[in-house]
């Protein structure tokens, strides 16, 4: 079961990277498993979606225990460049597509190693274009602290979310069972009532016929 914020990301994903400028900022996950792929999330929404924008992206990395950041990746007008040999052929663009107005600068790290543990910084170099030929340059940065582990661990949020899912499923099944029993009893009661009414009607019809026959015999006498 994915952590809660990943579930939230899955729900909000249709709102992200759409042409109408809709956007929702969600923090990146911070724990990767060695030998697997991992998405480094980086989302920066514009405050005013109606303002036209253009952005380029840069990613930097500082390994655990070191003090300096090194450039590892850049993205400009659909052109991606891996700038560090340690990440050669191991980074794919996983952010905004079909637009240079980038709000999602996420990347996908392939074949994660323990040496990938450390701090990642994502920079948006954004130019906002207003009316009257006025433009404004803005720099936004996001930080991701990544830990690489040998085996995936489950946090409290993940366990709680899974328990709540099963509780909801069991509760729904119990409710459906109660509804089925109620409906069955209601239909059965209605059927019994209909049978009683039919029997009473038949009895009244026979009694009426017998009364008529008796009256006919008395007249004949």
TrEMBL record:
<protein>
    <recommendedName>
        <fullName>Sodium channel regulatory subunit beta-1</fullName>
    </recommendedName>
</protein>
<keyword id="KW-0406">Ion transport</keyword>
<keyword id="KW-1015">Disulfide bond</keyword>
<dbReference type="InterPro" id="IPR013783">
    <property type="entry name" value="Ig-like_fold"/>
</dbReference>
<dbReference type="GO" id="GO:0086091">
    <property type="term" value="P:regulation of heart rate by cardiac conduction"/>
</dbReference>
<dbReference type="GO" id="GO:0005272">
    <property type="term" value="F:sodium channel activity"/>
</dbReference>
<keyword id="KW-1133">Transmembrane helix</keyword>
<dbReference type="Pfam" id="PF07686">
    <property type="entry name" value="V-set"/>
</dbReference>
<dbReference type="GO" id="GO:0086002">
    <property type="term" value="P:cardiac muscle cell action potential involved in contraction"/>
</dbReference>
<dbReference type="GO" id="GO:0043204">
    <property type="term" value="C:perikaryon"/>
</dbReference>
<dbReference type="GO" id="GO:0001518">
    <property type="term" value="C:voltage-gated sodium channel complex"/>
</dbReference>
<dbReference type="InterPro" id="IPR036179">
    <property type="entry name" value="Ig-like_dom_sf"/>
</dbReference>
<keyword id="KW-0393">Immunoglobulin domain</keyword>
<dbReference type="GO" id="GO:0044325">
    <property type="term" value="F:transmembrane transporter binding"/>
</dbReference>
<keyword id="KW-0966">Cell projection</keyword>
<keyword id="KW-0851">Voltage-gated channel</keyword>
<feature type="domain" description="Ig-like">
    <location>
        <begin position="14"/>
        <end position="122"/>
    </location>
</feature>
<keyword id="KW-0732">Signal</keyword>
<keyword id="KW-0739">Sodium transport</keyword>
<keyword id="KW-0325">Glycoprotein</keyword>
<feature type="signal peptide">
    <location>
        <begin position="1"/>
        <end position="21"/>
    </location>
</feature>
<comment type="subunit">
    <text>A voltage-gated sodium (Nav) channel consists of an ion-conducting pore-forming alpha subunit functional on its own that is regulated by one or more beta subunits. Forms homodimers and homotrimers. SCN3B is non-covalently associated with alpha subunits and induces the formation of alpha subunit oligomers, including trimers. Interacts with SCN5A/Nav1.5; regulatory subunit of SCN5A/Nav1.5. Interacts with SCN7A/Nav2.1; probable regulatory subunit of SCN7A/Nav2.1. Interacts with SCN10A; regulatory subunit of SCN10A/Nav1.8.</text>
</comment>
<keyword id="KW-1003">Cell membrane</keyword>
<keyword id="KW-0472">Membrane</keyword>
<dbReference type="GO" id="GO:0030424">
    <property type="term" value="C:axon"/>
</dbReference>
<keyword id="KW-0915">Sodium</keyword>
<comment type="similarity">
    <text>Belongs to the sodium channel auxiliary subunit SCN1B (TC 8.A.17) family.</text>
</comment>
<comment type="similarity">
    <text>Belongs to the sodium channel auxiliary subunit SCN3B (TC 8.A.17) family.</text>
</comment>
<keyword id="KW-0894">Sodium channel</keyword>
<comment type="function">
    <text>Regulatory subunit of multiple voltage-gated sodium (Nav) channels directly mediating the depolarization of excitable membranes. Navs, also called VGSCs (voltage-gated sodium channels) or VDSCs (voltage-dependent sodium channels), operate by switching between closed and open conformations depending on the voltage difference across the membrane. In the open conformation they allow Na(+) ions to selectively pass through the pore, along their electrochemical gradient.</text>
</comment>
<dbReference type="InterPro" id="IPR027098">
    <property type="entry name" value="Na_channel_b1/b3"/>
</dbReference>
<keyword id="KW-0812">Transmembrane</keyword>
<keyword id="KW-0407">Ion channel</keyword>
<dbReference type="InterPro" id="IPR007110">
    <property type="entry name" value="Ig-like_dom"/>
</dbReference>
<dbReference type="InterPro" id="IPR013106">
    <property type="entry name" value="Ig_V-set"/>
</dbReference>
<dbReference type="GO" id="GO:0019871">
    <property type="term" value="F:sodium channel inhibitor activity"/>
</dbReference>
<keyword id="KW-0813">Transport</keyword>
């Amino acid at each position: 079961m994915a952590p809660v914020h990943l579930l939230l990301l899955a729900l909000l994903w249709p709102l992200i990277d759409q042409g109408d400028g809709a956007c929702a900022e969600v923090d990146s996950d911070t724990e990767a498993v060695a030998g697997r792929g991992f998405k480094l999330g980086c989302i920066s929404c514009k405050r005013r979606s109606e303002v036209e924008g253009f952005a380029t992206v840069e990613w930097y990395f500082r390994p655990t225990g070191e003090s300096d950041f090194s450039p590892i990746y850049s993205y400009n007008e659909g052109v991606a460049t891996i700038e560090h040999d340690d990440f050669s052929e191991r980074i794919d663009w996983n952010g905004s597509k079909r637009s240079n107005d980038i709000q999602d600068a996420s990347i996908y790290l392939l074949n994660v190693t323990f040496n990938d543990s450390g701090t990642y910084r994502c920079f948006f170099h954004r130019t906002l274009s207003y009316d009257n030929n006025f433009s404004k340059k803005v720099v936004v940065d996001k930080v991701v602290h990544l830990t690489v582990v040998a085996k995936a661990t489950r946090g409290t949020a993940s366990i709680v979310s899974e328990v709540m899912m099963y509780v909801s499923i069991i509760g729904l099944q119990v409710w459906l069972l109660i509804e089925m029993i109620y409906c069955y009893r209601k239909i059965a009661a209605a059927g019994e009532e209909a049978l009683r009414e039919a029997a009473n009607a038949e009895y009244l019809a026979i009694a009426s016929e017998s009364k008529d026959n008796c009256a006919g015999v008395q007249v004949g006498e």
